[in-house]
Here is the input.
Amino acid sequence: MSEIIEKIIAISGKNPYLCYQCGMCSAACPMAEYMDLLPHQVIRLVQLGRKDIDRIESVWMCVSCMACVDKCPRHVDPGIIFEAIRLLTLRKGVDKADYWKLTDLEEAPSMALVALSRKMTG
Amino acid sequence: MILMKLLYYPGCTVKRNALEYEKASIAVLEKLGIDVIELDKWYCCGALYSLAIDDLIKHLGAVRTLVKAQVQSRNVGTNDLLTICPMCFNVLKRVNKLLLENPDNLETISRFMDEEEEYKVGVNVYHIVEILANNVDKIKENMVRELNGVKIAAYYGCTLLRPKEIAVDDPEDPHIIENLIEELGGEIVNYPFKSECCGSYQVLVNRDIVYNRSSLVINEASRRGADIIVTVCPLCYYNLKITLKNMKRPPTVRIVYISELLAYLLGLDTVLSSETKSLFESVFSHTGKSM
Amino acid sequence: MSSQKTVVESSPKGSRTVRIYFMGKAYDVPEGLTIMKALEYIGYRFIRGVGCRGGFCGACAVAYRLPGEYRLRTALACQTTVEDGMYIALLPYSPMEKPKYNIEEMKAEAGYILKIFPEISRCVSCNSCTKACPQELEVMDAIQSILRGDIRKAAELIFDCISCGLCSIRCPAEIRHMYVFQLVRRMTGKYILPRAKHLEKRIEEIKEGKFDAEIEKLMKMPIEELKRLYSERDIEKA
Here is the structure.
């Protein structure tokens, strides 16, 4: 197992090898249409030990709605594995959201900005 | 007569963007004999529960709040903590569960936060929907207005129902709000998108995502005849409202908080804004059927 | 800071000394000195990171550790007495660019603050800021108050902030407290607090020339006369 996959497992506490590619997560995901790789496809890449997994852009579209976690029949929980993949980048102090490009900061509820900061800034 | 006491955790958003939700919620609960006591000190929960199992820092805001609730629970005489924002509910309840199942994590956090007392994992976290569902009879007793055939769709959003471990009802097909409305004599509109994500924080990054997601909810509820969509979340409320405003030919359906609807039914007009009050008046009069 | 002469490694006969560590060297300095005075005693001359020497300007922020302790402590050098075994590092400022904004175009609402300082939403309530503050202010509570939209409360909590930057240095969310608090105080003063009516009245009176004659008279007075007026002025008895 490559180091990066070990790290993903250590951060998430989940086992990507349980996934049997049923595709329920991708069907349930509200952000799937905005992702270039669907959730179950990303998990497949994790299983295959893809070394540049931290450069997959799909993981950044996730809004942690937990629909995939709810539906997954084998408790692979892609949403949680995605968080681990994101953290590989965020823990290097890299931000994936540009605060200066955000709109509507004056009016939108605080929870939106706080959620975005937790998700996308490192 | 006070039947029940609840400590109350508002969360940042309620105090800044959704005071009307708070006002209506507290008024409704107090009418039902429930004393709502805001925590003296509380902290931002962080909105999204941190899913990493190898670090604990993102849980601190929630744990500090639970400690403050613990302290206050001794004076007030209740360990029950009310939230009205479902993101806060989600985070607090999951943190509670994490600490209960992982005493090591609790110990590490307690050592770090050595200026606070140790959290004993004794606070119970509730969302207002659960409290309302348990007090239907009291609501019925105190109603001064009838639902009069107004068709109501419930929009739950994500964080109240997922993950299953903390959900207030079945994530696939929740009924807790619909049951409440039906008990009060209302007509509910069932539709498949009631727990689909509204788009969440994408409203700050890419509003089109919110418009797409939220219009699924609005259009389907409206197509099935809903006059009102009740929400329980300030972010869902905001996203649905801006989507409605952005539509070229918006349907006539209106978005309100569940507490605002109940406040109207209980005759607590003073806590409603004049805009909300006239919204209800127009919806209720147009659908008036003789009961 | 420059070192002008060789480091003094002994102190005047008869005085009690404490051992301090600075820049990788050990020094014995007379007890009872402040950190700032102790560093000057051993031969360093402050040309930066020094100001009022009275605990008010926030220029002389330092970090230090004491023997047998893991805690990283922060303080003002001019206000803190040296202790035996103290390991000192200077932190004269926390780097941050001053944001440009027009207070006239804002309201006293959290949205405007979050627009300039969105990192406030990253606060995890770790309390590192409060622990670092040499003025013992409730920094975490102030930041949390802003998130909640309670600008006035935030302003009240950090009224005595001296902008030393120690909180910002310790903050894992990298919040720029110094300028956040400056904006909070400005918003509160401009939009929330009631106006000082007696001040406005006095300004009107000045504009109307009520005091012109008196000022003219004083300006033309000989110095001896002015001195006499000053020493014979009304003083309220204690």
